What does this fold into?
Amino acid sequence: MSDHNSDTGLETIWDRSDLQKPRCKFGEQGLCCQECFMGPCRINPSSEKKFRRGVCGATAETIVARNFARMIASGVAAHSDHGRQVAKTLLIAATSRDSGYSIKDVSKLKKVAQVLAVPFDGRSKEDIALEVAETVLEQFGRQEGEIPFIKLAPESRQAVWRKLGVVPRGIDREIVEMIHRTTMGVDQDYRNILVHAARTALADGWGGSMIATELQDILFGNPSPIRGEVNLGVLSENDVNIILHGH
Ligand code: SF4
It folds into this structure.
């Protein structure tokens, strides 16, 4: 605990992190599996043979890949659900004058519309925004094809992804498949699991997260750099410090 905090009794993330040491070696290496109630299983790949597999037969490679893949799936779910809520907010802004939201960046709206093949000539910004929001919301439950923002990546990169078969079909689609594949008794091959983990991660970067970023620009305006104070330096000794945190 820092000197200041030990004086005041305040506890920070660093204090709690110190208290977790020494950390569990199985957990640190991703070798603890809790995917089903036959476990938890702890694997020691360098031990004698009988300790090298979980109860279901999963190897160290499978367990590490499953744990990592499930972390990816939860991160993609969190980012993408944010994107979903932003899309719903754009839809409300487009259809309700009393929503408190408005379309601030029409130029960005048209750029996004173009990527989504939504026509914009001669239409009101509300009309365009409504179709953009509806088109984006369809990307979550889409079962086949490719998410449209993938076209914004460099062409050579798109070609690599297509060759590997990792272009996401739909955002929720890939998250669900990731959880399904990593369930006990489904996909035991760490290579398959990691290939789908890449597809799931792309559903975030070029799907959910990009939807959130692009649509927030439309709603709140394109951000520009400003100078500001950050981190604990914002706290003032002589003021009541109220910090709002959101993610
Ligand atoms: S999925 Fe396999 S390794 Fe994981 S807890 Fe169940 S039995 Fe153990």
Remarks:
- The pocket of iron/sulfur cluster is lined by residues 33-36, 38-41, 54-56, 58, 63, 184 (CB under 6 Å).
- The chain has a mean pLDDT of 92.
- The longest strand covers residues 32-33.
- The chain has nine helices and two strands.
